[in-house]
Specification:
Blueprint (H helix, E strand, L loop, with lengths): L1 H19 L7 H19 L3 H17 L5 H43 L1 H7 L4 H35 L8 H11 L2 H27 L8 H31 L10
Length: 258
């Protein structure tokens, strides 16, 4: 119990420090690290989700119209709700956790165990500025970009390939998509993606810089704890957003287009 409280306190402190130090990204070495993090987290992950994301949109529209016997309006609305608000950000978060979260926590744990972080301190280099801030900012940007990428592929796949499966033309589906799309869908996915990226990167950095011991055996422990807690954080943030939008809004406390 005490360890969990310490981890929560340490994670909050690291998150606040990283958020308050974002202006240091203007420095060339930190900016270079930030761009490198965006490339390895977002760009290299994009090629592996093309087919899966494209099939996702097709399955949503086809199943909705064929199995549920829904019309075009309902099928497109479900596509928007599922892809833009839920599956898009969640799929991007899962990819980030499995690819970059594991690598980031293991890399920082190895730096801590091998004494590289101590050497940086001896050179009067702030660990938050050089290690944490570019990773947190880079993962946030990469998560947002990957979310948009998955959403675009899923919607495009659904619109392009669904006419081969169901009795609905591409123009009919596209017209209803543009009619039903609202700014709430865009803002909802943007905020969720940024929060997912922030939570994942901050959690991985914290565990990487605070291994249970300074031996090689600590690395798999760090990775396991980081991935597990990242998944819990993402699910918690998603549940909070779902409650606010689909819970509070339905009780009339706030009015919004859902």
């Amino acid at each position: 119990m005490l360890r969990a409280v310490r981890e929560i306190e340490g994670g909050i402190r690291l998150s606040l420090n990283a958020a308050g130090r974002l202006p240091v990204l203007r420095k060339p070495p930190i900016l270079e690290s930030f761009l490198r993090q965006v490339y390895f987290t977002g760009v290299t992950a994009s090629t592996g989700v093309v087919l899966r994301a494209s099939l996702l949109g097709v399955l949503i529209i086809a199943i909705t119209m064929d199995v549920l016997d829904a019309d075009v309006d309902l099928a497109v609305k479900i596509l928007l709700l599922v892809v833009f608000r839920e599956v898009g950000p969640l799929a991007a978060a899962v990819v980030i956790i499995l690819r970059s979260g594991t690598a980031m926590s293991a890399e920082m744990a190895m730096m801590r165990i091998s004494g590289q972080t101590r050497a940086l301190r001896y050179m009067n280099i702030d660990l938050y500025d050089y290690l944490v801030v570019p990773r947190v900012a880079g993962v946030m940007v990469a998560t947002l970009a990957l979310t948009f990428y998955i959403q675009a592929l899923a919607v495009a796949g659904g619109l392009l390939f669904s006419p081969f499966i169901i009795e609905a033309s591409f123009m009919e589906l596209a017209s209803r998509l543009f009619d039903l799309f609202s700014p709430v869908d865009f803002y909802y996915s943007v905020i969720k993606a940024l929060l997912f990226g922030f939570a994942i990167s901050a959690c991985c950095c914290y565990h990487g810089l605070n291994p249970p011991d300074l031996t090689q055996n600590a690395v798999p422990k760090v990775v396991t704890r980081a991935v597990t807690q990242c998944a819990m954080l993402v699910l918690t943030i998603n549940a909070v957003f779902a409650y606010i939008v689909f819970g509070i809004l339905f009780f009339g406390l706030v009015k919004a287009t859902v």
